[in-house]
Amino acid sequence: MKIFRSLRFRLAILSTTISGLVIVTLLYFLWRVIVSSIEAEADLKMSSRFGAILDQAHPRMNVQAFRRDLTATLSEDPSVLLYIYDGMKDKILFQSDAGSADWMGDFPLALPETLSPPHPRAPRIPTAPPERLLGAAPENKAPPKRPKIPRNLLEGSTNYADWIWKGKPWRAMQMSRQGFHLTTAVERGPILDQLQRIRWFLLLSIPVSLTLIATVAWFVADRALRPIRELSDTASQITAKGLNHRLHASAHSDPEITALTEVLNAMMRRLERSFHSANRFSADVSHELQTPISILQLQARQLEEGLTSDPQAAETVGIIRSEVQRLKQITQSLMLLSRADTGTLARNFHQLDLSKEFQTAGEDFEILAQAAEINFHAEAEESIIVLGDTTLLRQMITNLFSNALKYNHPGGFIEAQLRKAKAEQTAYLTIKNTSDPIPIKDQPLVFERFHRVDKSRSRKIDGFGLGLSLTREIVEAHGGTVTLLASDENGTIFAVTLPLMT
User: Does 124 have pLDDT greater than 60?
Assistant: First the structure.
């Protein structure tokens, strides 16, 4: 489609693409910042929450009350796993889910060796007896060997790790203060849900933003190119008959548009001067040639009449007179075309009956067609009234009939019809004749001046390539159109439309 090749579309696509890359890059870094911020905030809340619990632990505390408070607190939050180890007394202060410690089996952070759960590749290390859990010292038994504390449980350290347990994501943490070591894991489902919502919001914002940017870019490009379109529309209306027109830039136009307007106006001034100079030259030459050509034609006729005793000389003079007549026709056509270029071709407009002009020309050419052994048929509706110049419209009809006769061949036909097209309020003239098909590459050029399908310009077909050009100028001067409808083995068809008199 034409719109996809327009500069406005390309500008909108280019700006949208660049903006889209910038937006996607910014959103990616924004996403990374959001993820880091939310995870850091969650770690800070986790550290503050369990750090406060760990701060309550001290050697002379009431262990039973401490465990009771933790049990009551964690019973309201099942998404928390926790145990607290007293490194100085080598005993467990608290362990959530005490009946099943399987969550400690693949815990991502190292645990004290004495409290580490069985591992398939390591020997089972016995856990502390129940008496140790209650804080009572065993009787007549030597105190156990103090367990080795991993480096990640050194005093004042806090460590984090992500963990998948039972198909759910968890955030694990260890911290150590004043000889007490806390190990916990908090389910990350709520945080991941929050990040998922933010991610979908950012992803959906990309097409919405690009659509908005594309729309704005389209209107911005349209507004930016509007002065150029206005110049183009104005320039398209300037023809050879109106080279005196000039382009006008708005007072608020950009300097670039103003400079372009001035350049185009300067170019049009030069074209106008050159065109008028060429037109004046053509008109002056045609006018000056008319008198000597008329004299030559008169002298040739008189000389031909006086050479009755010498047939060969009379024939030569006849050829000269024929060529002078041809030169006179070219001169007259050039004068008419010069007037058409300056917009002064049709001046004497009045109401006339086109049907009568058509019938009169048809009667004349019917005689010529019979001499050339061509079947001629012309019919016209009565009283087709138009507003125009009688001489020019008569020449238009004559040119079309002459063209159909010249390019015909013996045994062929000419069919001409003039009727009203009431729906369009126009007079519709068609002329169809047998002829050799006009090549497709030549069909758009048949109305160009001095264009002939016969490139050699042989004299087998009389003509000089101005008849159809002059016909088009006459028809357009009367507000009509002339077109080549078809040219093939079935014949060549020309059509003319002229506005009816209302």
Answer: no
* Whether pLDDT at 26 is above 60: yes
| Dihedral angle computed from the Cα positions of residues 331, 335, 341 and 342, in that order, rounded to the nearest 10 degrees | 160
- For residue 326, what are the contacts with CB-CB under 8 A and spacing of at least 6? 462, 464
- Give the CA count within 13 Å in the CB-facing half-sphere of 87: 19
Q: Tell me, what's the pLDDT at 468?
A: 87
Q: How far is Cα 180 from Cα 197, in angstroms, rounded to an integer?
A: 38
Taking a C-beta distance cutoff of 8 angstroms, is the pair 169, 193 a contact? no
CA distance readout (Å), 486 to 163, 402, 433, 471, 497: 83, 18, 11, 18, 16
Entry pTM: 0.48
Helices (H), 76-188: 130-134
Pick 87 or 174 by higher pLDDT. Answer: 174
Tell me: pLDDT of 263 over 80.
yes
CB atoms within 10 A of CB 133: 17
Let me know if 28 is exposed, middle or buried by CB neighbors in 10 A (0-12, 13-18, 19+). Answer: exposed
More confident of the two residues 274 and 70: 70
Nearest to residue 463, comparing CAs of 472, 473, 453?
453
Residue 165 is given by DSSP the state E
The Cα–Cα gap between 495 and 396 comes to 12
411 phi-psi bin (left φ>0, alpha ψ -120 to 50, beta other): left
Query: Does residue 28 or residue 464 have the better pLDDT?
Result: 28
Rounded Cα distance between 292 and 303, Å, is: 16
Q: How far apart are CA 196 and CA 177, in angstroms?
A: 35
> What pLDDT score was predicted for residue 285?
65
CA-to-CA distance for 300 and 286, rounded, in angstroms?
A: 20
